[in-house]
Amino acid sequence: MPRLHLHLLSDSTGETLEMLAKAALAQFEGAEVNRHFWPMVRSQQHLDRIMGEIGANPGLVFFTLANADIRVKLEERCRALGLPVVPVLDAAVAALEDALGQHPRARPGSQHTMDEAYFRRVDAIHYTIAHDDGIGWENWEEADIVLAGVSRSSKTPTSIYLANRGYKVANIPIVVESPPPPALFGLKHPLVVGLTTAPDRLVQVRRNRLLSLNQAPETSYVDADRVAKEVQYARRMFADNGWPVIDVTRRSIEEAAAAIINLYNESRAAPAGMAE
To answer: Of 19, 179, 192, 218, which is most buried with the most CB atoms under 10 A?
Structure first.
């Protein structure tokens, strides 16, 4: 398969564009793609500098540019080079324009405005960082979600991902020799979710972790029988408390987080449904 140069041009941070490109590329297994990322493209001069790089590494061009003059210039330059250029948000914006009967604002980075949702997300990130790995259990009642699981079951990265979506998340390691604080079992507001994984996969993840830290790869931390008992102990705790469980063995962080968000939304909708 030939190597592709993929150029990503954005007039803002480029976060949306990167996510779209990543989602699309995930459909092509084994594809060799060199991604060239060009954020904050807001002037003709900046575009001129970038076009030199695009000309030196011709390929496919994706863009999200609100400024009409810069868009036209980019499309003209790409056509002159014989390169395909794709305005990746145009179809979605056009459909919304028709449905809403309203013209788009065409303002760069408008999705990143410092509105209430922005500050809520920042607050969630601060809370989540401060309540990682069992810290600050006295304030767990303020959380939206509490994740519980044995060591290396993706609690922290999943918590951070959820925090970036605006959820306050605390997480607690489940350790056989050190039971969690009693507060965990009396929480009223947060949704407690158990994270579990296949023991053999967990052993592999832990062993890789030890190697990355230049520590001995053969300890009780990666003993197969011990790890299996840890996972069994945690699953029994989840079942005894009626907590929903997400198996992260074959799930990415994004997929695990999406499943947790669904559980959270269902838990918040349940009282209304019962009232009816």
So the answer is: 192
